[in-house]
Amino acid sequence: MAEERQATFGSDGSLDTETPPEAREGTTDWGEPKDDDETDGGYNRYAVSSLLQKAVRRSDEAVAAWAAWELARSGYAWNLWDRLHLYVVEDLRAGQQVALLVERYETLATDRWEPASWKGRLCAIHAALTCARATSSREAANADEFFRNAAAARAEARETGDDPAVDFPVGDLNPGGEYDVIFDQHTGEGARQDRGERFFKTFGARVGPEGEDELSARWQRLNMVLSDVEYDEHEIDHAVAPVDADDRWGDPRDTSDEE
């Protein structure tokens, strides 16, 4: 069963998780007293908040903007911002700056202005549109679920003595294995193998297939030339060379600081 990450309703319609108390103030757009968890437009705020997240997930800008506006004007700004912050960690492709913008819009709407005011509503719409225009991805949520399932499969396999149906991407982390390069001076095993500065600079500090930019590579070369460790030209070239996209961990496994 997936972990509960947000407020949901049980099979009997009762709320499963506690939420901040709501002040039922004012009336709906047609002048009727508002019910608990009802928006000014007569909608259930749980439905609108769910609509908001799924609209930004599906990049439906118009629906996302309306849902944000409806929650903000109805006194449910906290629910709006909670949903948008959930989106940026659950449904946003990693590496984008949307999370910072949402945080800024919330600060303006709640700290500088009143959330339900005209300015607060504009912040809500801006934030929803920013999210809807971002690149959505369930990668983090999918990864979390897979890692949890893999952990359960590994534990079950250990009990039965069988090989797990699925495993973590790294398998075992042992010296001499695929990820041997991680055992440098920053780990006990690396220190026991005398893998000091030479090993770290030459192998452990290398970056991805895109490589170092020209300035960073120049600094690294100069640092190695000026080091107390005497590096040869091959070691310096290897230190600033990008890793192989098809073999990211394929570094030599027999280098130490011993002469």
Automatic annotation (TrEMBL):
Coiled coil: none annotated. Residues 8-17 have a biased composition (Polar residues). Residues 1-42, 237-259 are annotated as: Disordered. InterPro entries: DNA_pol3_clamp-load_cplx_C. Residues 21-33, 245-259 have a biased composition (Basic and acidic residues). This is Uncharacterized protein. It comes from Salinirubrum litoreum.
